[in-house]
């Protein structure tokens, strides 16, 4: 097959082991030869573990509100407490599902608090500032390897009107999160209306297709997005958060 | 780079010209040598054109309700009429944006009615039954080439809480739309909770990253998803529609 102007390639990076708090993720990623224009999509889980965003449930003392909500939802009150601590707003609490708006502005199940792929009596929280995490990883890679691939930190989110989860960008550095195509002419010369591609989310989704969900493939290398990779770190995935006021879908 | 168990590749098919009503899309796609396990992500716009799902605005006589809504939203009343005809429910009408639930169950802006990349005084509507469109394209390819790649028909949708649009699957045939991973063990042997990958949507998103938005690259070939490609056509993208009753995000 030839003739297409663009070509996307996504493949897991080999050899990222089980991550412990304090692990040097950039060092692990630098073991692969990276190029300018590369995009590395890193699973939130390993970033959270490396940053110590792990809580032992035995250390959590749930409030009365958390206990009440937990009883309603048939959930562990300590997990509900952690979810509430991470959230600014409860969007929906019903049938065992707790959907909140996190401090970052993400609307997702359980505020990203997750017990899978965490050893023992512990859960991971989302990184405190995923865009800052992405910038730090990028800077560390630049320092070690001389090249600065773009970094996307991704998590799997459910959606409002569609079943199944997709990976989305919760943090990024060096990748244009949105490509504003409004005002550009279409193939017939007419102006395109309201086309603004969520580049970072589509990159995360492409990575989601090759990632081993059992959690052993924490980093996916995406090639073919050079035109969206920038020298500066840019606005990050914060630029993908629709404010409550702007949210016409609510 | 080696060692990753999976590798995804996405690239536009060359040589799909401007599509006229009645065009033989399968014939155009068959010009590329396809393999079993391939996935072709076809832009909704060309499917709609080939199927004659095009309306001239001069032929539309807007109702009183369409005129009223059009005045509120500062839109063309004839376009509003077409949107209402395609919809079962208005989700939101404000600030120039009309979000509805289509007959298919999709929640999107303008019910998919779109004036871009359509010549003259005309707009395209979504295919009447995009899963049936995908099945027909697959059958036609099987007949012509002896191979039956999976077909995804995609459109760009906005999202509830996130800015920017992503391509999603509005129709599919021969691709598992969702991969239910609930109950499988994670890397540490614990059961994964609520992980159900929206495969068809992630495939559409990957295609969105390489598609030329000016509309000249109507079909994207995605390789590396063989494990999700099935001999039978399967449930289609209808399996991605969350019913109003099930929609915990509302």
Can you describe this structure?
The structure is a homodimer of 250-residue chains. With 250 residues, chain A is α+β, with helices and mostly antiparallel strands. Helices cover 24% and strands 23% of the residues of chain A. Chain A has helices at residues 25-29, 44-50, 64-73, 77-85, 130-145, 199-210, and strands at 8-12, 39-43, 54-56, 87-94, 97-102, 107-109, 122-124, 150-157, 166-173, 179-180, 196-197, 219-223. In chain A, the strands form four sheets. Chain A has a five-stranded mixed sheet, sandwiched between helices. In chain A, strand 4 and strand 5 form a beta hairpin. The model of chain A has no long low-confidence stretch (mean pLDDT 90). The interface between A and B is large, with 93 and 92 residues.
Provide keyphrases for this structure.
alpha+beta; 250 residues; three-stranded antiparallel β-sheet
Question: Topology of this structure?
Answer:
Two copies of one chain form a homodimer.
Chain A: E1 8-12, H1 25-29, E2 39-43, H2 44-50, E3 54-56, H3 64-73, H4 77-85, E4 87-94, E5 97-102, E6 107-109, E7 122-124, H5 130-145, E8 150-157, E9 166-173, E10 179-180, E11 196-197, H6 199-210, E12 219-223
Parallel strand pairs in A: 2-8
Antiparallel strand pairs in A: 1-12, 2-12, 3-7, 4-5, 5-6, 8-9, 10-11
Helix pairs in contact in A: 3-4
